[in-house]
Amino acid sequence: MTDVERSVRGDAAGDPGARAAVVRAVLWLLVGVLAVRQVAVVLRRPPGERLTDLETWTGATGVLHIAGSLYDPGRFTGTPFAGLVLKPLTVSAEQALGVVWTFGSLLLVVLLGFVAVRALPAPVSRRTAFLAAPVAITLLMVSLPVRNTLHLGQTSILPVLLVLLACFAVRGERLPGVLIGVAAALQPAVLLFAALFWLTGRRRAAVGGGVTFVVCTALAWAMMPRDSWAYWVHHLAGAGLGERPDSLANQSLHGALLRFGLQGPLEIALFLVLAAVVVVLGLRRAARYARDGQLLLAVAVTGCVAVAVSPTAWQHQLLWVLLAVVGRVGTRASDRLVWPAVVVLVLTLPGKMLLPNVGVVLPVRDNVLLVAALAAACAVPFLSRTSPHWRQPVPTDYAKPVPARFTWVPLVPLWRRVLSRPNLLLELLLIRVVYSAYAKVRLAATAGRSAAEEHGRQIHSAEQWLHIDIEHWANHTVVGIPWLRDFFDYYYSTFHFIVPLAILGVLYVRRPSDYRWARTTIGFATVLALFGFWLYPLAPPRLMPGLGFIDTVHGVQDLDSPDFGALTAVTNQYAAMPSLHFGWSLWCGLVILLLAPKPWMKVLGLLHPLFTVSAIVATGNHWVLDAVGGGAVVAAGFGLTYVLAGPRRLQDLPDAGRATDSGAGGRPEPEAGDDGDTGDDSGRPVVVAGPASSKA
After folding, report:
1. Could you give the CA distance from residue 416 to residue 399 in angstroms, rounded to a whole number?
2. How far apart are alpha carbons 29 and 435 in whole angstroms?
3. CA 376 remoteness from chain centre
4. DSSP three-state, residue 679
């Protein structure tokens, strides 16, 4: 990085707007909260459950404290040089060492964030320069590698920091080479950065890195020959140390091949071939980005190569993948955030939250970190700084501000309604993440069986007072008609997810602007329902003792068994108010009613909520008032979306000049009585905002 770039960033950071200053203060407060939380999470654990790797090394019975080989118990996975560096720590008191180690690791994270921000490729906007540091440190702290490092007491942050210091913070050729060599002595795959130096013309630094690595390794060999032989020869640079190499924790090509069932010479040969291909492709890409002025991206790509080709790449060693967030991908502004969002989600959430438990996607889910590393190293088409879209991507189409249909409903001025179709990969990923979070919150939202049953008695009494307590009659009537019972059981179990997903899929393909509006409404309704699950846990009729309901879907429930309710550990059986079974079906019916072009389609769509409410009552899974609650959250979802985005219907431009945007065959919007498409098949809308009621 040049001094000119540093001065530009310094000037930019010194001239923020008032709003940016407030945001920055909030972000730094968030950094402080996260730091306190991380320290509390680590230090509040019992001594045997915190800093487990560090205690295994330096504790009273640790491998660094007792005589003998480092690798005989199989608990130490670092290099002999790392053991040589850590041995002096064995004289420290365990409690003091844990506190100092945790705070020291957090300081390294903060320093790493500052160095990474200073390495952003110029030009950097004022707002970015002003907010980048707290954002970067926040992302680092919430990432899985840093959380794993703090929990285990590992040293994996240090090699990353040494590399960044070598590339961005020190001058000359000698000291960067020394830093790279020391980092490689701690984590051998980091030696690939010496190759990056060589390919980018920094030959002296590359040679210095190699020499320093040899010197450090030789020093450790001289002082611990038996351990060095065990690590470098017997275990082939640490392969096989620690956890099983085929465990999900090993996110390298070697670990993935073992999980696919390959073993022996075939697996080794295939691993070496794939590793050679990844090294060649990745280092060539990294050198190209470095020459393009994107050295931080080049460092990230090289680190991802090191992750993939290492015999073992544990989760705490995958911080390189997060650095790849700096790469810019996509020529359109609407696609620019897709890659950063994917990287952040992959590096902060477990794979089971990102992808469902479906056989066809399990290979990706189990290797999601490796897939991200390989994508960054070999596949993702990062933009060059010479590209015309580097600074000015193709702008996103937004609707013009819409006056509310009712003047007393204020539209949110900051909410800009996007007309084009969202990126499919990001949309699927976000839907999956939001649903996983919803499932976790719903599972946690329970106050126990007694409270749920008490609420059930309250609902039952209210329905009796309102004379709508038809659940018992409907339940026993359906039980007496086998074909009707089978129909409602099948309908309850099958169509809850299929119909909403099918509607969203059709809208995404055919009506992108309406897709966003509809997706937002069901999202708001679902979030609001979580408050009901949390604040008012409710036993459904089938779980109410003494009322005589028959559970037609799940079978007979022994309400007197002490283990009753065991299924609540899998799915919260008391998340009944409001009923999202009915709420989602009502959303489906309303969307079809609003958008379907044919009357028979509208009628067919309305049958779905009718069948659903009949099914949830007849099978004993919900009270009638649960359905009322489901309808209320859906109505609130539509209302919130209206307040934020305005009316669903859009209006033609007066001059129709944008109707044939990009030559995709656009169509003008139909008149108010026609529910045809509001956009062409390419996802490029042909309309701008305006309330439907304003048409003559």
Report:
1. 7
2. 29
3. 17
4. strand
Q: What does the alpha-carbon distance between residue 605 and residue 587 come to, in Å, rounded to a whole number? A: 10
Q: Give me the percent of the chain exceeding a pLDDT of 70.
A: 79
Q: Which residues pair with 650 in a beta bridge?
A: 689
Give residue 89's pLDDT band: very low, low, confident or very high (50, 70, 90). Answer: low
Give the chain's count of helices (H) and strands (E).
28, 2
Six-digit token pair at 49? 């459950």
pLDDT in tens, 619-678: 888 899 999 999 999 999 998 888 877 777 765 544 434 433 333 333 333 333 334 344
Kind and range of the H or E run holding 333: none
How many C-alpha atoms does 49 have within 13 Å on its Cβ side? 6
> What's the rounded Cα separation, in Å, for the pair 514 and 524?
15
Tokens of 431: 């839907």
Q: What is the pLDDT of residue 74?
A: 55
The single-letter code of the amino acid at 580 is L
Q: Compute the C-alpha angle 255/258/261, nearest 5°.
A: 155
* Tokens 């919007």, residue located: 669
Alpha helices in 375-511 (DSSP H): 424-444, 449-466, 471-479, 482-510
Q: Using the structure block, give the residue that is written with the tokens 């609902």.
A: 459
Q: What is the dihedral of CA 678, 681, 684, 688, to 10 degrees?
A: -10
What burial class does residue 229 get, using C-beta atoms within 10 Å of its C-beta: 0-12 exposed, 13-18 middle, 19+ buried?
A: middle
What's the average model confidence in pLDDT over 5-31? 65
Whole-structure pTM value: 0.78
